[in-house]
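Students often ask why we bother encoding 3D structure as a string. The short answer is that it lets us treat folding as translation between two languages. Here is a chain of 186 residues written in the first language.
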Amino acid sequence: MIKENKLIVITGATGSGKTTIRDYLVNHYHVAKVVTHTTRAPRKNEQDKVDYYFENDETFAKNHFLEHVQYAKAKYGSSYEGLEKAWRNNHCAVIVLDTQGAITYHEKLGNQALIFFIEVNDPVILKNRMIERGDSEDKIKQRLSSHEYERDLKVPKELQSSAYVIENNDLKHAEATIDALVNKLC
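And here it is in the second language, the structure alphabet:
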């Protein structure tokens, strides 16, 4: 029997550990990573075509996006080509999106999209994670005061009946929850 392609959509607030959890899935389960596009500058140790396709406004506009948003003055988007490329490598792929993007994928892919909402109960943990990853104080203040940050702190009503909520105050606890879900769903 051929398995249906699945896409794990990781969403939640900035600093919740979405990228760390994506990397866990890639490294421990060999899930294919969907590389997305952004106009923001690379962070320390990020590589073009590995972490993101780093673009300018002109090149960003030439892509075929399934969804795209503007967040903290930068554009982010995921392309059909990126999704298909990931599925060529593995029937189960993973992508990191904000909650608005997760809603779009849920609507467009239906049961193929497995929504993992990453939740952190302590805002101090979120801020400390942003500091640890090298975000500037100005960038952190901008993100923490944004509408998008507030929106992404809780599961949107459109995803409440389908999202798997994963508490990530402690990474080992989150990994155990993820292990159970991946073995059941993928």
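Translate back mentally: The CA atoms of residues 36 and 145 lie 25 Å apart. Keep this in mind for the problem set.
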